[in-house]
Structure formats: C-alpha cells, structure tokens
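From the methods appendix. Each design record in this collection lists the tokenized structure first, followed by the designed amino acid sequence. Records were kept in a plain field format so they could be parsed without special tools. The example shown here is representative of the layout used throughout.

RECORD:
FOLD TOKENS (307 positions):
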C-alpha cells in the first residue's frame, strides 16, 4: 500500500482529526466535488439532472459506527422517508446503507430491526436496498444479516470487496441464494493476511470474480460492477458480449463526481449506469477515503485553501 494512501486511511480513522478537520472552510469547499449537498433534497435534485443523461442513482446518507440506539433508529426513519420521496418523485434510485450506521456495534437485533424497516419501505417504493461492506471484522456479521434478509426479500443486495482474500469463497457460498452483488475493490485499511496488498492482485481478483458474476447474471443474479477502473469496465463489457449477455443484465455503478465523462459515455452507449450520490453532514471519513483512492486529489483540497 502506498505511503500516501496509508496516511490518508489513518487520518480517516483518527477520532481527533475527524472532529477538527471538517471545521476548516477550504476542506468543506473541496468536498463539494464529491457530493451535491448535505440534504436528501440536494441528492434528489442531482438525481433528476443525471436522469437527463440516462443515468440512474443510488442514495446513501453518510454515517458509520453509530453508538446510540436513538440515532440508529433515526437513520432508519430517514431512509423510510427517503423511500417515500423516491416513489413520489418517480426517480429510479436505490438506497445503500451501512450496517454500523443502523446500530450493528450495539447489537445484531437492533440493526436487523432497523434494516427490515428500510427494506419494507423500499419494497413499497419498488426499489432495492444495498448493504455496504465495511472493515473486515464486520464481514461475517454483514453476510449473516444479508442471508437473513435475502430469505425474506427479493430486492436486497450486498457489497463484496475484491481486495479480501476470502471473497472468492464468500461469493461461491452466496450464489445459491440468487443474490444481488455489488463488486468493489475495497476502501479500507486492511492487514496483509486479510487483503491483497498489490493493486495488480486486487484488480486480477476483481476480474476473476466478475467472470463468475457474469456467468451467474445469465441466470438472474444481479451484478453491480462498482468501479471507475476504465480498463476493468472495458474487459467486463467485452466478457459479457462474449457470453451474449444483454446489457440490461448487469449495471455499471460509479460514484458522484468521479469519472463523470465515463459515466455519460457508457450511458450513451446503452449500458445501464447508476451513480451513487452521498449526502449528509457526517462526510469526513468517507471523503478522506475518496482522497486515499487517488492521493492526487489532495492537491485539489489544497487549491481550495488558496481559492
Ligand atoms: C457504487 C460504489 C459503491 C461502493 N461501495 C463500497 C462499499 O460498500 N465498501 C467498500 O469498501 N468500498 C465501496 N466502494 C469504494 C471502492 O471500494 C473503491 O474504493 C473505489 O471505487 C475506488 O476504486 P476503483 O474501483 O474505482 O479503482 P481504482 O483503481 O482505485 O481507480 C481507477 C481509476 O478511477 C479513478 N478514480 C478512482 N477513485 C477516484 C477518486 N476518489 N477520485 C478521482 N478519481 C478516482 C481514477 O482515474 C483511477 O485511476 C464503492 C464504490 C462504488 C463506485
């Protein structure tokens, strides 16, 4: 792992910096590049604009590691309300949630109760709920909860990370459930016994897992290809053509503000493209993970210092 990436991931997990740095105006200005605003209405407005380019959306309200029950329930209330707004406005938007934001650190039952409420509301709005994957100590619990939800609900998916050595096995075990899987490379700082350390290994694993997913997509499994890596996207599109898979059988999912040119081009070429829009006031750790993915982005932050 590069030094800059390691340092940024350390900052994202440091409690004091998490509290102090977001107060600086130049940092607040820089974050605007990756999120349209702090409110759900900002995300809804951005979704309507993206729709004109044939790009659908996923909404996520930023937050993680919630440590009181009241806040965890309030997060669920927020998503229930968001489902209603999505339905009323007629936008094609999924929800994406973090289990630690729904109280997983406080107990599985609390978290499952909150998640169940969100999924039921999303079902009424005829949309999907996706479960994010967080740091590796959460993977077992996340997959256990996903299995419980998938037994009861159809439109629920989970994220898997190609940097984890275990993911190939996890995917094989999930496939019989006919799951929805969003495949990402992985955004956290992980030890080498748990995660591949070389980018080439993470990318190679992403492609291997994608081939398995494309085979499964032909049989109705929902595959979200969540990466901005142009060469991987091209390879996956090519593999799907080779299998004679219709473009509608999988989705290309990217983050708001990243490779916007690629998002528009892919949508214009007829691929199903979905943009994940984050909003909310708790953006600092999430934002620093975006900087870690491309440390050159730090220059963008510094430019705002002088703007
Ligand atoms: C829809 C979606 C959902 C996600 N959900 C999760 C999740 O639940 N759990 C999790 O661990 N991770 C999640 N991630 C983040 C993911 O793990 C990666 O950290 C992130 O997508 C960057 O990796 P990459 O696949 O784009 O490849 P990279 O190899 O990191 O990047 C490929 C290229 O994309 C561009 N790029 C990538 N990131 C940036 C950036 N921040 N700024 C500017 N350009 C950039 C650059 O041109 C770069 O060369 C999600 C990502 C997406 C798109």
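DESIGN:
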């Amino acid at each position: 792992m590069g030094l800059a990436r390691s340092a940024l991931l350390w900052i994202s997990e440091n409690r004091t910096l998490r509290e102090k740095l977001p107060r600086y105006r130049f940092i607040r200005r820089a974050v605007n590049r990756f999120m349209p605003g702090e409110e759900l209405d900002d995300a809804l407005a951005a979704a309507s604009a993206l729709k004109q380019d044939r790009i659908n959306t996923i909404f996520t309200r930023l937050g993680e590691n919630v440590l009181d029950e009241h806040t965890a329930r309030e997060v669920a209330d927020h998503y229930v309300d968001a489902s209603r707004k999505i339905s009323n406005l007629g936008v094609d938007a999924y929800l994406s949630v973090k289990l630690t934001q729904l109280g997983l650190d406080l107990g599985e039952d609390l978290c499952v109760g909150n998640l169940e409420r969100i999924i039921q509301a999303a079902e009424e709005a005829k949309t999907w709920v996706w479960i994010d994957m967080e740091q590796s100590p959460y993977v077992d619990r996340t997959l256990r909860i996903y299995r419980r939800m998938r037994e009861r609900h159809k439109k629920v998916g989970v994220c898997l990370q190609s940097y984890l050595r275990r993911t190939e096995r996890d995917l094989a075990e999930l496939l019989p459930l006919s799951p929805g899987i969003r495949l990402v490379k992985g955004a956290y700082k992980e030890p080498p016994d748990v995660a591949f350390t070389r980018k080439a290994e993470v990318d190679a694993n992403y492609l291997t897992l994608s081939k398995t997913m494309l085979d499964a997509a032909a049989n109705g499994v929902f595959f979200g290809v969540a990466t901005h890596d142009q060469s991987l996207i091209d390879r996956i599109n090519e593999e799907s053509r080779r299998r004679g898979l219709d473009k509608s059988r999988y989705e290309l999912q990217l983050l708001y503000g990243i490779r916007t040119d690629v998002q528009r081009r892919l949508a214009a070429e007829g691929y199903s493209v979905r943009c994940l829009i984050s909003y909310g006031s708790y953006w600092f750790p999430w934002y620093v993970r975006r900087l870690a993915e491309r440390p050159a982005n730090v220059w963008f932050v510094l430019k705002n210092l002088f703007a």
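APPENDIX NOTE: Residues 36-282 form a domain with the TIM Barrel fold (CATH 3.20.20.220).
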